[in-house]
Design goal:
It contains three helices and five strands. The chain is globular and about 55 Å long.
Length: 125
């Protein structure tokens, strides 16, 4: 199992080639930033970090992590855990191509749809 998430950090100065304006989690408006991805094993031990341009959205960083698990680490049976902002339909397709699984949150309307369609047993939610 791999746990993956990203954060951002704003930068001072002018010479950082990856800095861009983007969604700033620190609330620092008008600051260019970088996005940092952290991949951890199931114990929470970091196994890889990667820095992206500051305007990179979370899901756009995900494919590189799937490739790392498959190619760099040689994993064959993997479950990625991520929030619903990270693992979307495109990322699910990448995981399926690699033969990997995922765990993510779903919204209340998605839960209601599953309940009404018999996709979940009553009372499990």
């Amino acid at each position: 199992m791999f746990l993956y998430d990203v954060t951002s950090s704003y930068l001072e100065g002018e010479d950082q080639r990856l800095r861009r304006y983007g969604y700033n989690r620190d609330g620092k408006k008008g600051k260019k930033q970088i996005v940092i991805g952290l991949l951890c094993d199931e114990d929470g031990t970091p196994v890889s970090t990667e820095v992206f341009r500051g305007n990179t959205q979370d899901p756009q960083t995900f494919g590189a992590q799937v490739r790392k698990a498959s190619q760099r680490f040689g994993c064959q049976r993997v479950t990625f855990v991520g929030d619903r902002g990270m693992i979307k339909s495109g990322q699910i397709e990448e995981l399926a191509k690699a033969g990997f699984h995922y765990i993510t949150a779903i919204t209340k309307p998605q839960i209601d749809t599953l309940l009404s369609g018999g996709g979940l047993a009553d009372g499990i939610v």
